[in-house]
Amino acid sequence: MAQEIHGTVAEGFEAVREEFASVVCAEPPDYAGQLSAYVRGRRVVDLWTGADTDGDTLFGVFSSTKGAAHLLVALLVQDGTLELDREVASYWPEFAAEGKSAITLREVLAHRAGVVGTDAGFTLDELADDRIIAERLAAQKPFWRPGTAFGYHALVVGALTGEVVRRVTGRTLQELYEERVRAPYGLGFHLGLPESEEHRYLPVQPMAPAPPEQALLDSTPRGPHTLASIAFNEHVPGAVAPADLPNSRTVRALGQASAGGVASARGLAGMYAAAIGVGGRAALLKPDTVAEVGQIHSVGYDLVARAHKSYGLGFQATADMWHPFLGAGTFGHSGAGGSQAFADPRSGLAYGYTRRRIAFPGGAAPENQQLVLAVHSAALAAE
């Protein structure tokens, strides 16, 4: 029997509900997920399905966390508190070690710093704590000459930017995000989940084994000492399994700024809606800031992912990386569990998707392609 779809869509967005239903039908019976979208500040899609799931259920969103962390950084840049072209070491002197003195905040946000991990790696408890990550990275020699190339700083970029925030403001990135973004908008997107909200969290289910035909197609497996293995902390004995990160209470409590956030689809879409304007309130980001963070800074061959990638400042260039029909300057982030979220300032679209089981082969779940297209098409038709 097909799972029941709950929630609502606005008039003109009925096709989105149908598309979501088709996704659910194609998934195993234990599928749980949510879809939410805003258009020009009005919520037009709010759907969910699955056991123990409602519109407020929180899922581990892995690297979609980076969107929340770097919205806060963008606000501090907009305020004049941080300067994109200032050297990180001028804020954080210890970072200058091992040839890193000239690296700027802009280069860190664009994944050009070359400090994707450490030679020794991290335990799960160490990965939970951005302060520990930052201390280790300060002593690490870059894995390529900074600024000459780029590679995804998957588990550490939030610790790097977060330490800059802490050195300048005396507050953690997580504290400022709570104060300036999450609490004022009542968002279900936490960088640091209070114990009182733990009942809303639905544990991540590990990825199902790869189909045999896919294993045959994978001609470039990750070796134990590659740049990718270091960036994803797979080069250490007893490496942390992906699902272990959000399923750790310590990670959820501390809100590790690269991959430790938890959110509902409502929270993901609502945050990006707040960034560009929601419910008649002024947008958190001014047009010039939106243009800056959405401008492509790194595009081409990603040394870590070993594939074509595009990044703005702390965000993925979503249109180039995932959905070419979206407007220029669309900014957002996906997560290893399958989540995806973004803002398309030109159409006024803010999108959020979550799922419980880690999607194969990792990153934004494949069904986002059809869901984003359906939402975007309805948004354009509604103009």
Can you characterise this structure?
The protein is α+β, with helices and mostly antiparallel strands and 383 residues long. Helix content is 35%, strand content 14%. It contains 16 helices and 12 strands. It has helices spanning 14-26, 65-79, 88-91, 105-109, 124-127, 130-138, 157-169, 173-185, 212-217, 227-231, 244-247, 249-254, 265-276, 287-294, 318-321, 368-381, and strands spanning 6-9, 33-39, 42-49, 59-60, 189-190, 262-263, 298-302, 307-311, 316-317, 331-334, 340-344, 349-355. It has a 7-stranded antiparallel beta sheet, with helices on both faces. The longest helix is centred in the first third of the chain and has 15 residues, at 65-79. The model has no long low-confidence stretch (mean pLDDT 94).
Write the layout of secondary structure elements.
Layout lengths: L5 E4 L4 H13 L6 E7 L2 E8 L9 E2 L4 H15 L8 H4 L13 H5 L14 H4 L2 H9 L18 H13 L3 H13 L3 E2 L21 H6 L9 H5 L12 H4 L1 H6 L7 E2 L1 H12 L10 H8 L3 E5 L4 E5 L4 E2 H4 L9 E4 L5 E5 L4 E7 L12 H14 L2
Antiparallel strand pairs: 1-3, 2-3, 2-12, 4-6, 5-6, 7-8, 9-10, 10-11, 11-12
